Amino acid sequence: MSANDTPLVELDDLRVWFPIKKGVLLDRHVGDVKAVDGVSLTIGRGETVGLVGESGCGKSTVGRAMLRLYEPTGGRVLFEGQDTTHMSDSQLRPLRRRMQMVFQDPFASLNPRHSVGRTIAEPLRVHGIAKGGEASARVREILEVVGLPPDAANRYPHEFSGGQRQRVGLARALSLNPSLVVCDEPVSALDVSIQAQIVNLLEHLQKEFGLTYLFIAHDLAVVRHISDRIAVMYLGKIVEVAPADDLYDNPLHPYTLTLLSAIPIPDPAVERNRRAIRVQGDLPSPANPPAACRFHTRCPFVQPTRCRDEEPLLRTLDGHLVACHFAEQVKAGSVRPIERDPVLDADLDESRAEPAYDPPPT
After folding, report:
1. Residue ranges per domain, the chain?
2. Considering Cα of 36, then 41, then 46, then 52, what sign does the dihedral take?
3. How far is CA 133 from CA 83, 120, 130, 170, 287, in A?
4. Angle made by CA atoms 233, 167, 53, in degrees to the nearest 5
5. Contact 259, 52 (CB under 8 A)
6. How many other C-beta atoms are found inside a 10 Å radius of the C-beta of residue 110?
């Protein structure tokens, strides 16, 4: 947290449920997809919070609900101390320019019929900040800030590479001089070398303009590099929050352990002797999540008591927030991973093997 004790963003028991409807007219409500189900998180001014987890765990939904692109089902979203959860469009409009988003796919998020200059100038026009020559000058200035030439304003998205398009998306987000930028997997569609350029650019812009980031990503190495704190999500809930280095050096939640054990180490000797901690089964449906601890159906450290009967709440342990009944035992090593069925493992290994190459008949 920065010197200012008031967080820039507070999520308090945020829930985003999507209704499941059936019937000829789709008028019968039969259930809900609980994409986000009770998330509480704070983001300080000038801080970068990484949000990681499996696909479908609700990361992107948290970011979009934070900006009111999705309407929250319950809970509260506070921005600079103001509750934006139930604000009308007219009440929310002055705050919109303070909250911006960089989307995952830079090509899909840019209008192919609009030039780059028009794309970046549109937020300035919509909010009545600048138009005409003043807007054009502002566009050229922003393009230079993100590392693109001024003549890029006259070109169209299809004329740029993926990394350049992502810079255009970042320029659009910065045009209104926001306080918060939600980065929804901004580098996942880019080559590794381009990823490094975009991450370095984000860090440079943060120092220059005092930006605050929510950085959503799958790549744990990228998240560690850019984040001050990291929150780990599983099936709509946050299971662990900790400073970036502490999370990697001393993970306390079994799900965090399994994520980190899946990261390959670029040392054949270490990788050959390392034993990965595997999760069992498939990700449960968010429309019907497991009772109590949501990870207990796949947890390698599951215990017969409490895990299936009592929901763990986020609690403080060694500077982490962790939602696990047996985090102390997992940390101490007194709880061991459950031995998997060797026959099942053999079947899984065989199913992952590359098929033999049969040359075509001559």
Report:
1. 114-177, 251-352
2. negative
3. 37, 14, 8, 22, 51
4. 10
5. yes
6. 21
- Report residue 263 as tokens: 């990261």
Model pLDDT for residues 156-210, shown as the tens digit of each residue: 999 999 889 999 999 999 999 999 999 999 988 788 888 888 899 999 999 999 9
Do you know the residue count of the chain? Answer: 362
Which stretches of the chain drop beneath a pLDDT of 70?
1-5, 334-362
Structure-token pair, residue 179:
């306080």
Q: Residue 26 has what pLDDT?
A: 85
Instruction: Collapse the DSSP code of 59 into the 3-class scheme (helix H, G, I; strand E, B; otherwise coil) and give the result.
Output: helix
- CB count in 10 Å sphere of residue 1: 15
Terminal-residue alpha carbon distance, the chain = 69
Check residue 304 and report its DSSP letter. S
Tell me phi and psi for residue 112, to 5 degrees.
Answer: -65, -20
The DSSP output letter for 158 is: G
Residue 315: how many other CB atoms lie within 10 Å: 12
Note the pLDDT of residue 4.
53
